[in-house]
Amino acid sequence: MGYTPANVHLFRKAFLHKPEKMDRYQAARNNERLEFLGDAMLGMVVGEYLFCKYPGSDEGFLTKMRSKIVKRKSLNSIADKMDLMDLLKHYNQGIRISPSMLGNALEALVGAVYLDGGYHKTKKFIIKKMLRGGYLNIHELETYDDNYKSQLLEYCQKHNKLVSYRVMSKYKQDKRDRFKVAVVIDDKEIAMADDYNKKSAEQTASEKALVSLGVLQVAQKV
Questions:
Q1: How far apart are CA 32 and CA 38, in angstroms?
Q2: Tens of pLDDT along 143-153?
Q3: Residue 83: CA count within 13 A, CB half-sphere
Q4: pLDDT value, residue 28
Q5: Is CATH 1.10.1520.10 the classification given to domain 8-143?
Q6: How far is it, in rounded angstroms, from Cα 70 to Cα 131?
Q7: Nearest CA to 208 among 184, 186, 173, 187?
Q8: Which of the chain's termini has less CB crowding within 10 Å, N or C?
Q9: Mean pLDDT of the residues in the chain
Q10: What is the pLDDT of residue 99?
């Protein structure tokens, strides 16, 4: 990845997924804390990068662009293209690796870079490797709108319809919580989707609802 760490243990920890049940000692050994730190660093660096890249753009555009870059699906895709799956499999033998674990590991990796090298090295890593490394096409993101929940809300407001979301069930899959969410328009269930993250399930269900309503001709893909 073009980065030589001084504290290798930090980078090993970045790829250790938390077990379903853990004591205080195990909590300090997995990547969850590094993920928290990396998430904060990504938001800051990406925000600064976009602020400088688009000097004439307003706050709304910058916020949407940052959201498109740091959202879970984008991070999963970047991590996959960076071949982080091999490291996850190596450090989590016997555990089924889900796509969402890729994005978590990438955030933890950013956190490890920050603790190991400081802010300026982290900024360089994020910009050169993640934003300009060929894993993400920022110019395509300028016109691509995949906030299906927002699109559905705008549609319902325009047509005087009431939209809401219901968690139909919460269950375990691969030892993790999974949510089944329904989109309800004027008390009628229009579409359902499930995911490990409730917000992601709402987005997927919203996309299906837009297709069902004829607003989207086909489900868009990232």
A1: 10
A2: 877 788 989 99
A3: 2
A4: 59
A5: yes
A6: 11
A7: 184
A8: C
A9: 88
A10: 80
Q: Regarding the domain delimited by 148-212, which CATH topology (the fold level of the hierarchy) does it fall under?
A: Double Stranded RNA Binding Domain (3.30.160)
| Residue ranges in the chain modelled with pLDDT below 70 | 19-28, 174-175, 217-222
Q: How far apart are CA 165 and CA 195, in angstroms?
A: 14
Asked if residue 147 lies in contact with residue 64, where contact means CB atoms within 8 angstroms, the answer is yes
Q: Looking at 35, 107, 116, 202, which residue is catalytic?
A: 107
39 is catalytic: yes
Q: Of 35, 39, 194, 207, which residue is the catalytic one?
A: 39
Rounded CA separation 68/14 (Å): 23
pLDDT score recorded for residue 174:
67
Q: What are the residue boundaries of the structural domains of the chain, listed by start?
A: 8-143, 148-212
- Inter-residue contact 89 to 96 (CB < 8 Å): no
Identify the bridge partners of residue 167 per DSSP, sorted by sequence position: 181
